[in-house]
TrEMBL record:
GO terms for molecular function: transmembrane transporter activity. The chain crosses the membrane at residues 21-45, 294-318, 339-368, 388-408. Belongs to the ABC-4 integral membrane protein family. The lineage of its organism: Bacteria, Bacillati, Bacillota, Bacilli, Lactobacillales. Residues 21-258 form the MacB-like periplasmic core domain. Pfam families: FtsX (PF02687), MacB_PCD (PF12704). Keywords: Cell membrane, Membrane, Transmembrane, Transmembrane helix. This is Permease. The keyword Membrane applies. InterPro entries: ABC3_permease_C (IPR003838), MacB_PCD (IPR025857), Macrolide_Exporter_MacB (IPR050250).
């Protein structure tokens, strides 16, 4: 008996009692639907988090700052004043210089170090002549900017380029994000010590999607940042120039989490603190995974209940088909073949229920995404709440079929053990 014949037999046998089979499939549908939907939420949220993380820094980039000597009143003695450090009532924070950059470069495991330059911008002016308060930060290597349209600023270009935050598009006189790309804006800035205000023109090469982490923050390429910093530092004493609050240390691209931890330990011993984007946002990711994990458990409970339904369905099927089983065995069908027929029936119930559940989840997910995009997620461009992947859907189908198969082994085993003579006498 070929497997194709077994499959046809299993399919026809399931239709003998349509009501019982449909109710069992519905039970599996509920479990598969719940698991697929919660998995889709998990994929969608984590995908958005990954986009946000990519817009801040690469996986192997470490944000390095000087250690902060906190004085909260809990120590036995107050912190001594150091004239070479910038101070505040809460801490002493030393501004970083080129010496710090060179020192960090020498640490094992670090490939490159780039200062995080900060420029003061007074305003931005668009095509309509209106001026708005404006803030922007520099772009680092390996940053994956989540853009609505356009391209990422080029770090190698000598032209002044900017990835504009979406909040400024309409205010600066542009019809849409696409209309803004290629246009020029004016940035007003002045020396820190005071002096004549200067205007720097920059080209918009892309418009960002809304960022939760960097809300309202535009991004500039290296050339533009250097120009603005040059203007800000005009007239400053030499010892007050080229100072940074933070530098970005890039580890080897093949570095593991253990390697990154080791680098942060070396930074600590050298007098610095190092942190990655994942350190800052990891807790949010864990909370999302925990919530979707709990919701997935409800789907697992529904599948557990459905497995008992499969056992009941097939036990009753064995009871009703006892004489038929005896006849098949009397005609030479082995116990193994009988076991396979009933096991395939169970797996087929799992397959139908899981596929229908996933299709239902995809349909509901599309509806929820549309409603979310038009309401509470309207401001978060680029955020698709529920996403599905072929890989996760296939895993769900295979797992549910495996559960159904295991649930069907008990009645299948009972059918395989039936004595053909006794079965033929069964009334």
């Amino acid at each position: 008996m070929k497997f194709s014949d077994i499959l046809k037999s299993a399919s026809s046998n399931l239709m003998r009692n349509k009501g019982r089979t449909i109710l069992t499939i519905v039970a599996i549908f509920i479990g598969a639907f719940t698991i697929s939907l919660t998995t889709g939420v998990n994929i969608g949220v984590n995908d958005y988090i990954d986009k946000q993380v990519g817009s801040v820094g690469g996986e192997n980039q470490i944000f390095v700052q000087p250690k902060m000597e906190m004085n909260m009143g809990n120590s036995d003695e107050p912190t001594k004043y150091d004239p070479d450090k910038k101070t505040s009532t809460m801490s002493q924070i030393q501004a970083m210089t080129e010496k710090d950059v060179e020192k960090i470069k020498e640490l094992k495991g670090i490939d490159s170090v780039e200062p995080m330059k900060s420029a003061t911008i007074d305003y931005i002016e668009g095509t309509n002549g209106e001026k708005y308060v404006f803030s922007a930060s520099s772009t680092m290597e390996d940053m994956n900017i989540d853009l609505e349209t356009g391209k990422t600023v080029s770090q190698d270009s000598t032209a002044f380029e900017i990835n504009l935050a979406p909040e400024y598009v309409k205010s600066l006189g542009f019809k849409s994000s696409k209309d803004a790309v290629g246009k020029t804006v004016k940035l007003g800035t002045a020396p820190t010590l005071g002096g004549e205000e200067k205007v720097v023109e920059a080209k918009i090469v892309g418009v960002r999607n809304t960022s939760l982490i960097q809300g309202g923050m535009s991004l500039m390429n290296r050339s533009l940042v250097d120009k603005l910093v040059e203007i800000n530092e005009e007239g400053l004493p030499e010892n007050m120039q080229n100072q940074y609050g933070m530098v970005i240390a890039a580890a080897d691209k093949n570095s593991t989490k253990e390697d990154i931890t080791a680098i942060k330990d070396r930074l600590d011993k050298a007098g610095y603190t190092g942190s990655t984007v994942e350190d800052e946002i990891g807790m949010i990711r864990n909370i999302i995974n925990a919530i979707t994990g709990v919701l997935t458990m409800f789907g697992a409970i529904a599948l557990l209940a459905a497995s008992f339904g499969i056992i009941n369905t097939l036990y009753m099927s064995v009871q009703e088909r006892t004489r038929e089983i005896g006849l098949m065995k009397a005609m030479g069908l082995s116990s193994g073949k009988v076991f396979t027929i009933f096991s395939v029936e169970a797996a087929l119930i799992g397959f139908l229920g899981s596929v229908l559940g996933i299709l239902g989840a995809v349909g509901v997910g599309a509806l929820v995404n549309q409603i979310a995009a038009d309401s509470f997620l309207e401001a978060l461009t680029g955020f698709t709440l529920i996403q599905f992947s072929a890989g996760s859907s296939l895993v769900i189908i295979l797992v549910i079929m495996a559960i159904a198969f295991l649930a069907g082994t008990l009645p299948a085993r009972r059918a395989a053990k039936l004595d053909p003579i006794e079965s033929l006498r069964y009334e």
